[in-house]
Amino acid sequence: MTSTSSTELSNPELLATVGQIAAIISESSYAVGMTGAGMSVESGIPPFRGADGLWTKHGTPQMDGYASFKKDPTGWWNRRTNRKIDAHINELRDALVKAEPHAGHHALAALEKQGSLQSLVTQNIDALDEKAGVENLVEIHGNRTKLRCIECGDRVSLGDFGPLFAPDPCNKCGGVVKFDTVMFGEPIPDDVMTAARAEIDKADCVLAIGTSATVRPASGLLWIAQSAGATIIEINPTETKLTPICEVSLRSTAGVALPLLLETLSP
Ligand code: APR
After folding, report:
1. Average of per-residue pLDDT values in the chain
2. Is cis: bond before 61, omega within 30 of 0?
3. pLDDT tens digit string along 189-204?
4. What's the CA gap between 217 and 187, in Å, rounded?
5. Choice from 41, 55, 124 to test ligand 1 binding pocket (greatest atom count within 8 A of CB)
6. Is 141 considered catalytic here?
7. Which atom of ligand 1 is closest in space to residue 125's alpha carbon?
8. How far is Cα 235 from Cα 25, in angstroms, rounded to an integer?
9. Nearest atom (ligand 1) to Cα of 236
10. Superfamily of domain 1-45+99-144+187-267
11. Are the beta carbons of 237 and 6 closer than 8 angstroms?
12. Which pTM value belongs to this model?
């Protein structure tokens, strides 16, 4: 297992480790990316944990968000429309509205296009992977630009929905509608959980980028992949719980490492 620390990374060491990752990917038959909040830090969106993490600054939110929504959806939406929401939600939302894909997002889309990467499972809700052109994408924690019915799972685009009021009931089944983003305490919707597991079960290589690998069930997929014999690679400036099971850990950022990986793997 190779692990290089970001502070000591000289260009030759960075390139050598990128070369190792490229060799593993080119040998693999089904490489899957698994991204976390660190993937979008270079797009201006703060991570949740670590030195600059939202939860580090504002404290981890209550785990009962979904339960309180289900108890009184209209009340939840009314509080939301009056912006009586937590500081961290405002900080996150303001960053999300302004964010654009960075070179790392575009590199992942290009790696998929050239067949080096077969799919991407993201824990991010920022829709930047889709915007960068990734096609085989599973957004396991939802997508901030969509609404979802909690009864039938139907998703619709937010379009120009404010929210100035609670959304109409689901036009398919009349069920209660919420943001597609998975709330704390909300089960991962079956469709995306099944799709993410299917991708992991096909993978012989998983590229974990910008995730602390701490939030289940999403992070559990990484250990499932490893126990099924897949090679785990990590791109993260800091060590994580995942590091001990990684074949290669590159202590770099997504915005630096992924364009180099694309350059190394481009035909
Ligand atoms: N490039 C790559 N990785 C980075 C960068 C960067 N520029 N900056 C930070 N990181 C790393 C951090 O070192 C950290 O390990 O990204 C990781 C971010 O970890 P978290 O903030 O815990 O994000 P994530 O793993 O996605 O959290 C999972 O937790 O709160 C929930 O729903 C939320 O989807 C999120 C889930």
Report:
1. 93
2. no
3. 999 999 999 999 999 9
4. 9
5. 41
6. yes
7. 34
8. 14
9. 3
10. TPP-binding domain (3.40.50.1220)
11. yes
12. 0.94
